[in-house]
């Protein structure tokens, strides 16, 4: 396995292998979200659910957020290239969400969770008393999460580019704009 395979698995593995990996990662994501009281409210974003949300409701919203992304990027893919296949877009969305599994796991580590809670509590009372250790822990977590999100963005870009055979810079800009709009819009819907 080389760097190209890590950043663009869509060019190495067939659609069935990618679909299986995507479905497994989706199952792991939904399991972890249920375990930690989270919900996927858009691609690349998680939020804590409230106490009254049921498991079915949380899973439904999570799946709906993925479905919205698939529909939007499938339509865009068809505009770019009439031969764009639905399975390639589904694989792109599912595989690009794998780094989110690591973000969930890292954010639930006790040291990270305690530091986040401590900083949140101190920021409300007296920001000058924030512990430097907590601040360093949160900065390391934030940097790690940022790297994982960048990796997820790389995966979605490479998957979409492979699925649609898009090369024009205008198409790439429209694609990037749609990622931002889809991510933000879904967060407000759910």
Report a brief summary of the structure.
This protein is mainly α and 190 residues long. 76% of the residues lie in helices and 5% in strands.
Shape: globular
For the biggest β-sheet, the strand order reads: 1-2
Report the structural category.
mainly alpha
**Oligomer description:** single chain
Helix content: over 70%
Report the end-to-end length measured between terminal Cα atoms.
Answer: 38 Å
Helix/strand order, N-terminal first: HHEEHHHHHH
Radius of gyration: 18 Å
Overall tally of domains: 1
Uncertain regions spanning at least 5 consecutive residues: none
Question: Please, could you describe this protein's structure?
Answer:
- By secondary structure, the chain is mainly α.
- It has one domain (3-189).
- The protein has helices spanning 3-7, 15-36, 55-80, 86-96, 98-107, 110-125, 132-164, 169-189, and strands at 38-42, 45-48.
- The protein has a two-stranded antiparallel ribbon with strand order 1-2.
- It is a multi-pass membrane protein.
């Amino acid at each position: 396995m080389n760097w190209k395979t890590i950043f663009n698995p869509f060019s190495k593995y067939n659609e069935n292998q990618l679909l299986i990996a995507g479905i497994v990662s989706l199952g792991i994501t939904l399991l972890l979200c249920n375990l930690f009281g989270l919900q996927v409210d858009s691609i690349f974003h998680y939020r804590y659910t409230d106490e009254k949300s049921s498991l079915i409701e949380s899973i439904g919203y999570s799946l709906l957020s993925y479905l919205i992304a698939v529909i939007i990027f499938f339509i865009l893919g068809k505009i770019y290239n009439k031969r764009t296949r639905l399975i390639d877009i589904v694989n792109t969305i599912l595989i690009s969400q794998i780094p989110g599994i690591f973000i969930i796991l890292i954010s639930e580590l006790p040291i990270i969770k305690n530091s986040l809670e401590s900083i949140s509590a101190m920021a409300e009372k007296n920001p000058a008393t924030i512990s430097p250790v907590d601040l360093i822990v949160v900065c390391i977590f934030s940097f790690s999460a940022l790297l994982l999100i960048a990796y997820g963005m790389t995966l979605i870009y490479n998957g979409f580019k492979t699925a649609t055979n898009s090369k024009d810079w205008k198409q790439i800009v429209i694609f990037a704009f749609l990622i931002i709009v889809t991510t933000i819009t879904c967060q407000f819907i759910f």
